Input
Amino acid sequence: MKAILNVIWLVLGGFWLFVGYILAGLLLCVTIIGIPFGLAAFRIGLYALWPFGQTVVDRRDAGAASCVGNVLWLILAGWWLALGHIATGIALCVTIIGIPLGIANFKLIPVSLLPLGKEIVPTDRPFTAR
Output
């Protein structure tokens, strides 16, 4: 079932989310200061490409730097990304077949708001984060 939902997601918008996050990550990696944010954008992009069967967990080794980075990310990009995911999720939930896709879009909101200090893991192993 996860594979079918992932293929539908990929066709109906997941690919374009992936491309957007990857382009943003490439732009962020131009400067040394932006590299952690670029890596976070790449991580979100891969999650946005294939969201079913994956979940987000907190990294235990994340420290104060990730907290400060998350505040910067929230102010500069996270707020707008979350609003986009909310709008898209609501639009997808209008149809019955779009409800699982809308829920997947809502699942992307926490990681798009605060991506640093998070890790994407398979849903069958959420507590075995590296």
Remarks:
- The chain is about 65% helix and 10% strand.
